[in-house]
Amino acid sequence: MTAFKTLDDIGDVTGKRVLVRVDLNVPMIEGAVSDRTRIEAAMPTIRELADKGAIVLLLAHFGRPKGAKNPTQSLSLVTGGVEDVLGHSVMFIPECVGEGAKAGIAVLAAGDVAVLENTRFYPGEETNDPAFADALAEIGDLYVNDAFSAAHRAHGSTEGLARRLPAYAGRAMEAELKALDAALGNPAHPVAAVVGGAKVSSKIDVLRHLVSKVDHLIIGGGMANTFLAARGVDVGKSLCEHDLVETANAIFDAADAAGCTIHLPYDVVVAKQFAPNPPTRTVNVHEVAADEMILDVGPAAVEALADVLKNCRTLVWNGPLGAFETPPFDTATAALAKTAAALTREGSLISVAGGGDTVAALNHAGVARDFTFVSTAGGAFLEWMEGKVLPGVDALKD
Fold it and tell me: Alpha-carbon distance 358 to 101, whole Å?
């Protein structure tokens, strides 16, 4: 996979101003960063460039200020969190373009790191205004994109800037693109995909794309109910998009034509109310009562799905199998995730997972570290699963 340049290709950066697009859109509690995952993901790139003597200028957005300055969404609030993870001082520059930015950068020495102000304080960021991208390019010599999570947006700091300066993928971006290539670009077959979540409507494009790419499509979550209904199953009070039954049937037909097997649960865990630890029963899908709702995949189906994974070489996972935030409906997701993790550890499976709910579910099951790669990107991961071109990645290509 050599469609883009990486830090290995960057050459001597001593004293050069390197604009690094990172993801600093982090959660905050009482003015402090409460989860440093995204900051930590950017550290290998920041440290490598600083150690090589670059002037490292971090570009990022924070929240949705809609092109206007808003002190509650200033990256000055996040700079302390960057300092803590990096282990030494980081300068904050209260502009990201123009004379103010240039004046701040002028005092930096080789190896210094600075956070520039929120790119979304400027209306030209989200409109990818050429004048804004030009202004960004004026303050730097080289560009590195290390924010896959923002790569699905054609913004000034993700797409416009990459077309104006020599552009490279940072270490986190490089790892992400290599993992995604191994998962769907040029995967080892057979390939399985697990797609879960509440609604088919949010993942129609993902499902349509995957049936042409994978050998086994495992559908879970509330989405599975819509597919069961399309097969004539009465799903009782379960979450179900009955208006999408024809869409589900079209996906079944496309899968048949492509030689992809769709796996639906044949036993399920049902309850009369959606609450933590209510009375439940495990039944065949044809035995769901009118006043019951399907909230998880049953143990027999999970065992059969585990057997499917044992015969696969590659797995792509997005979305839980059940209502995993509410016990005991996390059982199926955790059990199948543990199987995937064990197969990955023994070297028989390449496992790539992504999306916020998925990361939470894998962490909950205690297996996120055992997967080959876990992407923290939400929207970008989903658009990649839909087969869409990601503008921030496309702009890095030679």
Answer: 39
